[in-house]
Design a protein that fits this description.
Blueprint: E1 5-9, E2 15-20, E3 27-29, E4 33-34, E5 39-40, E6 45-46, E7 51-52, E8 57-58, E9 63-64, E10 69-70, E11 75-76, E12 81-82, E13 87-88, E14 93-94, E15 99-100, E16 105-106, E17 111-112, E18 117-118, E19 123-124, H1 128-133
Parallel strand pairs: 3-6, 4-7, 5-8, 6-9, 7-10, 8-11, 9-12, 10-13, 11-14, 12-15, 13-16, 14-17, 15-18, 16-19
Antiparallel strand pairs: 1-2, 2-3
Length: 138
């Protein structure tokens, strides 16, 4: 059985090719880098140039836009949206229905609340409780 592809036309009229990820069967652009240990839900998308690192999870309806990075063990919640060139740090959690704007950053270990919208270029910092949960604060 060979690799099968799904093709979509983007807003600029360019045809993009996606394949099903080995862990979860979510759609991953052929030019995206997704670690085999990462989970991509069958209803999630990872766009061209994006990177999803080891142990990360992209939940149902999750969308990682082009050139974004979801770092090790980070979680993108249900219907959460990660904008172009955004970075979600290690062990960070982006809550359900949250939106991370283009070029925005979520610090390592931060927990973005449900339905929060982080504006383009902004940074969401980890709270003391977030760091304590990871054993990184006194």
């Amino acid at each position: 059985m060979g690799i099968s592809y799904v093709e979509f036309e983007d807003e600029a009229g360019i045809l993009r090719r996606y394949r099903k990820h080995v862990n979860g069967r979510g759609l991953v652009a052929t030019t995206a880098k997704v670690d085999p240990s990462a989970f991509v839900d069958p209803t999630a998308y990872v766009d061209p140039g994006a990177e999803v690192q080891r142990g990360a999870r992209i939940g149902p309806g999750g969308w990682v836009e082009g050139d974004a990075i979801v770092a090790e063990r980070a979680v993108v919640g249900v219907n959460a949206h990660i904008g172009r060139r955004a970075v979600v740090g290690r062990n960070a959690v982006v809550g359900p229905y949250a939106t991370i704007g283009s070029d925005a950053k979520v610090q390592n270990g931060a927990r973005v609340p449900r339905e929060l919208t982080l504006a383009d270029g902004d940074e969401y910092r980890a709270s003391t409780d977030d760091l304590r949960r990871l054993g990184l604060a006194a």
